[in-house]
Amino acid sequence: MKVLILTGKFGNGHLSASEAVKEELEQKRGAEAEIIDMIELLFPRCHKQIYSAFAVMSSRFYHLYNFINRLDDRRTKSRLQYYRFKHFHALMEEKKPDVVISTLPVTSKYIGAYLRKSRKSIPYVTCITDILPHSQWISEESTAYVVGGERTKQMLVERGIDPAIIHVAGVPVRSAFTEHGARGKASGGCRKQDLRTKAAKMKREKSGSSRPKRVLIMGGGFGLMPNLEELLDVLSKDKRVKITVITGKNEKLRKRLRTKYPRVEAVGYTNRIADYMRRSDLLVTKAGGVTLFEAVWAGIPIFFLTPFLEQEKSNAAFAEEQQIAVVENRLPIPTSEQILALLADDRKRARMQANMKRLTETYAANRLSMII
Predict the structure, then answer these.
(1) What pLDDT, on a 0 to 100 scale, did the predictor assign at position 79?
(2) How is residue 75 annotated by DSSP?
(3) For the purposes of burial, counting CB atoms within 10 Å of the CB of 216, is it exposed (0-12), middle (13-18) or buried (19 or more)?
(4) CA 364 to mean position of chain CA atoms
(5) pTM score, two decimals?
(6) For the segment 250-275, what is each residue's pLDDT rounded down to a tens digit?
(7) SS3 for 277?
(8) DSSP assignment, residue 10?
């Protein structure tokens, strides 16, 4: 089975989801899967400028970004749907896929227009990478939708999508997050020494000498977090807390944090995010769709900084409804105090982990490899 996965590099989320799809289909179905950057395909001369403009708009001019998204959501057609027909035609003729999968919203309309105009019949799956399914995700030609929650499914049904083709399976994440099962449980089982270590640890904690809590702070591929250093000014001085910050590709930020905060573990780009999540007690991050579901599978309670983008607001609202995250309260209470309060509430974090496990049990029964 040849699978074509269409995506884009608007942040790391869509690309991470496409890599997860490729990994799952190759491992579970023996598929021959290939990822295509649709923005590079459609705009070969200016795709880098498009990505740069998106990064600036989404981080600095989010009001304009939200306005453009809301405006587009009211439209039923995109002017570019047919304009790039020849690019899709050339791609389909070259690759001859058995299945097409999209993890990028605008691609859904583009490929839908191509299938409609060419009158081709190719199974076409749309993986929605956020809870909010705005109109760019929707195409009459999609034969299946993979969504993150029942709320997303209901919104699609309200837009006329047949509920029978909507599968609540979560946003696709890599096997590093899913294959270990319960939090902290290694695939090879526990050795006797591990059990003795765990027992000794429990005894220490019962005697009142509990270990410091681990906080993982992530800001996406470029490590961008609002007021990060103000937060670290407080948390890094608290000896009850150990902090790891993932700065992604932002090497300048990583070096500055290492110099300014010697007690903070500053990590650049890494493929061990799942390991860092599993060893931590709390994740502090932005409400990106892929990050949310990676945390769910890893079983790490979440503290979301105040979301500004429309899709991040929906992701955060979903996480609060499911009681798997706390969203920053923009009141006079400092963010650092809100984080420390959640770290101190072991029972609340345990409930959040139990709710995450409940979600993953639902998702496991609807994996993408079971759908196509």
Answers:
(1) 46
(2) -
(3) buried
(4) 17
(5) 0.83
(6) 899 999 999 999 999 999 989 999 99
(7) helix
(8) S
